[in-house]
Amino acid sequence: MPPLSLSKSDFETLSHFRYQLRRFLRFSEEAARRHGVTHLQYQLLLHIRGFPDREWATVGELAERLQAHHHGVVSLISRCEKLGLVQRQVGRNDRRAVEVHLTARGNDMLNALAGQHRDELLKLQGIFRVPGAEELAAGEGNSQR
């Protein structure tokens, strides 16, 4: 099947989207750095707290969310553990599994960074569609959990 022909406008739209996405990612990297963590450490904390229906995640689940190799995520968890941001626990249902939980310090750092990220995402609404933007905006005045 031959590739579809793209118009100049299509290329401009794709370029603009990638530019805005990169600007957001750069914002994220700099915000994390100002808080003394890497952007990957921030993402790990976010995926732990943001995992559906519970406040922890397994190493395998985090590897999937981060789109990273299992052994790389284990190293990332170890670095976060040394910073006092997370702790590992033996799996409740499967003792071979490792659950990763936020510590109070990790939770505090995540709350500060996530608030900044939410505000930045809300600024991007007119540039490209932000999934869940309505929910983010509705939660803007709510207190942190």
Descriptive report:
The chain has helices at 8-34, 39-49, 59-66, 70-82, 104-123, 133-138; strands at 56-58, 86-90, 98-102. The chain is mostly helical. α1 (8-34) runs antiparallel to α5, α2 crosses α5 (104-123) and α3 packs across α4. The longest helix has 27 residues, at 8-34. The radius of gyration is 18 Å and the shape is globular. 16% of the residues are buried.
Quantity of strands, as a count: 3
- Tell me the number of helical segments per DSSP (H or I, 4 or more residues long): 6
Strand order of the largest sheet: 1-3-2
Oligomer: single chain
Roughly how many Å apart are the termini? 51 Å
Cα radius of gyration in angstroms: 18 Å
Rough outline: globular
Which structural category fits the helices and strands?
mainly alpha
Largest sheet: 3 strands, antiparallel
Mean pLDDT: 88
Strand content: 5-15%
Write the layout of secondary structure elements.
Layout: H1 8-34, H2 39-49, E1 56-58, H3 59-66, H4 70-82, E2 86-90, E3 98-102, H5 104-123, H6 133-138
Antiparallel strand pairs: 1-3, 2-3
What is the structure about, briefly put?
The chain is mainly α.
What tags apply to this protein structure?
globular; 145 residues; 59% helix; mainly alpha; single chain; 9% strand; three-stranded antiparallel β-sheet
